[in-house]
Amino acid sequence: MGYFPFFVELEGKEGLIVGGGRIAAHKIEKIKPFGAKLTVVAPYLAEDIKTDPILDCKERPFLDADVDGKCFVIAATDDEKLNAHISALCQGKNILVNVVDDQEKCGFIFPSLVKEGKFCAGISTEGASPMTAAYFRSRLAAALPEKTEEILDGLLAFREPVKQEIPDGRVRAAVLKEAALFCLDKGRPLTKEEMQERLRAAAGKQEKKKTGSVALVGAGCGAYDAITVKGLNTLRRAEVLIYDDLIDERLLSNVSESCEQIYVGKRSGRHSFRQEEINDLLVQKAREGKRVVRLKGGDPFVFGRGSEEMIALRKAKIPVTEISGTTSAIVAPAGAGIPVTHRGLARSFHVITGHIAGTEDGLPEDIENLAALHGTLVFLMGIGNLAAIADKLIAAGKSGGTPAAVVRQNTDGSTQAVRGNLHNIVQKAKEAGTETPAVIVIGETAGLQLFDEQ
Fold first, then answer.
1. Which residues have CB under 8 Å from 253's CB, separation 6+?
2. What pLDDT digit, counting tens, does each position of 179-219 carry?
3. Is 244 labeled as catalytic in the residue annotation?
């Protein structure tokens, strides 16, 4: 089956409902807000149907001629043979038909609807699970602002003066988008003063070339819902999205269809873009007047090179902001039931890069100092150097029996952990087939498992 969610103009169109009971009444109530001219035919009609002034009611048996001239027909009787006959009749005449509780005989199906004024959304599972459609309908309805109808009426009224006063199509689209986002954030329509102010500001932008902006946004660690509300709202406003490898791609569905998406992912041993190229790309897109979002896994300022990008943007005089995300240094161990601090075991934790460019062995130069610390050591990007890290810590005096864990946080929210100590963690990780990206945790808290891995 290939159901496509067309939105069809029903205002003034002729429709027929065959059936006069509870199910027919339910279908009528769904269609009434869309302005169709409805005829209802059945030997018996419920009282609420008969007394509805907008319905053309015919309390008699169905006749084949009843479908003539109709845009759509709904068979809602308890007679399966009659419903099948109506379906065949309509399909022979190329009339859209819906047969209640018999999807095989339908030319169209009813979605689970959310309608608030001009806002209308239909959700369907193609009959697989009406409960699932109803669940998402409820969530969507709950997410709508209380004044959705007023907001949309106001935005419609705003479109005409924007169209008349702003000839530049790109500026016009940006003004309308910003107005919509403002209204949704505030939960109210624009005032007349706010409309005028936005028109004046837009006129100024046409005369003076606009410089764009960049937001460095941390996607958080793990599944797509780890991003902050502020980060998600910023993502939805993006005109250009430049994103990394270590994010859940479900996040990409939150950007608009017109947003330009550029992948610049990097993993150990597989670089697609050099950092300098990414910096130049951010500057270039911002100078095009675009609202750019640089989406990074984890937190931009925790080994995310976000500070380097911010320095390059500030040097180029590009407005730039940073929106923090949850870092894998805390989230990944926590997903395995490992706290990075615990009273009596670790009063500090230290986040260290497990791979340093320019050193002979790629390891931190102060590993002896790290070995002497009593807190938790968390190494990021160090899985390739796990053996060298363990050996050097032991050589620097840290006990081989010190608890150690290698934790991988997946984008589906699950966590995989390998537990051991400095003596055996390398072998255990190898046997488990642990792959990058993974976090190395060393210290007494690595011996804890406060709950099962998520």
1. none
2. 998 998 889 999 999 999 999 888 776 555 567 999 999 99
3. yes
Spatial strand order in the sheet of 376-380: 349-353, 376-380, 439-442, 403-409, 415-421
Q: Considering just the CA atoms, what is the radius of gyration of the chain in Å?
A: 30
Q: Which candidate in 27, 66, 70, 244 is catalytic?
A: 244
3-state DSSP call for residue 351? strand
For residue 54, give the amino acid letter. Answer: I
Supply the pTM of this predicted model: 0.72
Cβ proximity of 405 and 418 under 8 Å: yes
| Residue 37 bears catalytic tag | no
- Tokens 């099962």, located at residue: 452
Q: Tens digit of pLDDT for each residue in 21-79? A: 999 999 999 999 999 999 999 999 999 999 999 999 999 999 999 999 999 999 999 99
- In this structure, is the dihedral angle defined by the CA atoms of residues 305, 324, 441 and 366, taken in order, positive or negative? positive
AA identity, residue 172: R
Report the distance separating Cα 217 and Cα 306, nearest Å: 9
CA distance 222 to 225: 8
**DSSP secondary structure letter of residue 426:** H
Contacts of 266 (CB under 8 A, 6+ apart): 244, 245, 272, 273
Q: Are 386 and 440 in contact (CB under 8 A)?
A: yes
To which H or E segment does residue 268 belong? none
Residue 6, both tokens: 């067309």
Query: With 0-12 CB in 10 A as exposed, 13-18 as middle and 19+ as buried, what is 320?
Result: buried
Is the separation of the CB atoms in 363 and 392 below 8 Å?
yes
Tokens of 12: 């003034």
Residue 58, SS3 per DSSP: strand
**DSSP string over 242-259:** EE-SSS-GGGGGGS-TT-
pLDDT less than 50: residues of the chain: none
Catalytic residue among 266, 280, 391, 428: 266
Contacts of 258 (CB under 8 A, 6+ apart): 173, 239
The pLDDT, as a whole number, for residue 410 is 85
